[in-house]
């Protein structure tokens, strides 16, 4: 299906499985002395507040997957994730709300990965299937995926990042009642970034903060999900704020995030939203955000992950 066809479908009243949702999500001003010092104004697009169990970019990326499942008469959603995956958590919640069966293919051994995220998913009726790392690596390989294919099943890629994610994310742009100079967001697979590129106005810039090490592949992935990104100006991925790699963070980063949250009242976690905010402020301190900029930071959710980090004694 083309993006145009999907855009045309946006008007159909098919959101029900994802209700009740707070759409548009709130936009909150953020105040901080470093912003004043650099003459930059910042707002936070609170996608973390969209839904209590199905938050952030995962709500937006799943929206049209669920529509597709319904339209094609599918009764089962199957997807992939790590043991603390926000996407698995969101997919299980979506399945419960929509009456679709869900299966999560989880990287790791069952006994080594029981935690708050997976307990919630299981409690919402998701079937969990554990696979070793070697197998998990084949999650985009059609030969390996064939074992999960069934007429009743919609296979959703890891993180919900497929071309179907694009229109759901693009919709957030029109929810902001002005045209910011710069959008800032965390990125991992690049699906959310691809959707934002699709939705942004021509003059608007995007700074995506890669939360993982070796993010050189992300730009290609963005262009695979949304080919017009290759001919769209104004977006870049900052690769040097990963702070050690995916799901890693230094004590300094977590301390900064806690101080920032205490000062601004904005809840953040250190894997995505906190790391991206930290990255934005490093860019700001380095003088890479032009004076006078109006910046909208997208809070992509993920606060459910704090429980798992606490369980592991990492916070
Ligand atoms: C999954 C996730 C991301 C990464 O989004 P991509 O589309 O994979 O780049 C960012 N923030 C949060 C909170 C997430 O759960």
From TrEMBL:
<dbReference type="GO" id="GO:0019148">
    <property type="term" value="F:D-cysteine desulfhydrase activity"/>
</dbReference>
<dbReference type="InterPro" id="IPR036052">
    <property type="entry name" value="TrpB-like_PALP_sf"/>
</dbReference>
<dbReference type="Pfam" id="PF00291">
    <property type="entry name" value="PALP"/>
</dbReference>
<feature type="active site" description="Nucleophile">
    <location>
        <position position="85"/>
    </location>
</feature>
<keyword id="KW-0663">Pyridoxal phosphate</keyword>
<dbReference type="InterPro" id="IPR027278">
    <property type="entry name" value="ACCD_DCysDesulf"/>
</dbReference>
<feature type="domain" description="Tryptophan synthase beta chain-like PALP">
    <location>
        <begin position="20"/>
        <end position="301"/>
    </location>
</feature>
<comment type="similarity">
    <text>Belongs to the ACC deaminase/D-cysteine desulfhydrase family.</text>
</comment>
<protein>
    <submittedName>
        <fullName>1-aminocyclopropane-1-carboxylate deaminase/D-cysteine desulfhydrase</fullName>
    </submittedName>
</protein>
<dbReference type="InterPro" id="IPR001926">
    <property type="entry name" value="TrpB-like_PALP"/>
</dbReference>
<feature type="modified residue" description="N6-(pyridoxal phosphate)lysine">
    <location>
        <position position="58"/>
    </location>
</feature>
